[in-house]
Specification:
279 residues, alpha/beta, Rossmann fold, Nucleotidyltransferase, domain 5, 2 domains, three-stranded antiparallel β-sheet, 9 strands, elongated
Length: 279
């Protein structure tokens, strides 16, 4: 699904999406394709939505007004669903990004996938599982928002007087300090610490998937494994467990053996793995 030519329609439910996460969401979407349609739905006459103005202007998102006709009924969901079907029939995009933590969009995601669309879901960790599994891939907003904040955070500089005597002459040298205890310990210890928090269910999911696609020697191609994991569990994301990539997560689990195989291009290697317990 990582095809930069895929055109996406980004549809945002203003009632069920955090406004401080628009930029990291759009940056995440850019990994998979190009957001050509960007709309957000809500009753903009309500004071609780007034804070959206600046984020919408900064990210070129079109607000769609939808009045609440009846108290207690969310008419914005209906407007968003109708627009999604209109966009589907225009054939102007190849995928949809639905930003909401509301299970009301479950049927919409299913219908769009039935039509051959790629569907990415973005929601908070409170999102019902019915909506999560209806998407091709579901991404937790808290995960990408935290990563975005971490990347944007400036390095902490040690004042010159705290530097060793031999280094005080280099007053302009940046000395990053560890922001967490994990950064202050050796890498080997950090890996063990992360691994201890990895749920057994995740390890078994990976092991079962490796077995499903393994060759006669028990090896599975890492790229194929990633695709299968998403099909089995759409919200599977190494970042949920503190790893930037699937390869890093796999390497932290002693149960799996990694084999980096050379290709004709000296700069490219194909990564394979196998389950030692199955050998």
């Amino acid at each position: 699904m990582e095809n930069k030519d895929i055109r996406f329609a980004v549809l945002i439910d203003a009632d069920n999406a955090p406004r401080n996460s628009l930029k990291p969401i759009l940056q995440e979407i850019a990994i998979y394709g190009t957001p050509t349609i960007k709309r957000i739905y809500g009753d903009w006459t309500l004071p609780n939505l007034s804070g959206w103005k600046v984020p919408l202007l900064e990210n070129a998102i079109v607000p769609i007004q939808q009045y609440g006709y009846t108290s207690g009924k969310n008419s914005t969901d209906s407007a968003m669903i109708i627009d999604a079907m209109d966009i589907l029939y225009t054939k102007s995009v190849e995928g949809f990004c639905i930003v909401s933590s509301d299970s009301d969009f479950t049927r919409l995601a299913i219908r769009l996938r039935e039509a051959g669309m790629k569907v990415l879901g973005f929601g908070e960790k409170k999102t019902p599982n019915s909506f999560i599994v209806a998407c091709d891939k579901f991404i937790y907003i808290e995960v990408i928002r935290d990563a975005f904040k971490q990347a944007a955070r400036p390095a902490i500089m040690a004042p010159p007087e705290r530097l060793p005597a031999a280094s005080r002459t280099k007053a302009h040298t940046a000395v990053p300090l560890p922001e967490t205890i994990a950064e202050a310990v050796p890498a080997e210890q950090a890996v063990v610490s992360q691994q201890s928090t990895l749920p057994d269910a995740v390890i078994e999911l990976i092991a079962g998937s490796v077995q499903d696609i393994a060759d006669e020697e028990g090896y599975a191609f890492m790229g194929e494994l990633g695709n299968l994991l998403l099909k089995k569990q759409p919200d599977f994301d190494p970042r949920n467990f503190g790893y930037a990539k699937l390869t890093s997560l796999i390497k932290s689990i002693p149960r799996f053996e990694i084999d980096a195989r050379k290709t004709r291009d000296p700069n490219i290697k194909h990564i394979y793995l196998r389950d030692k317990n199955a050998v």
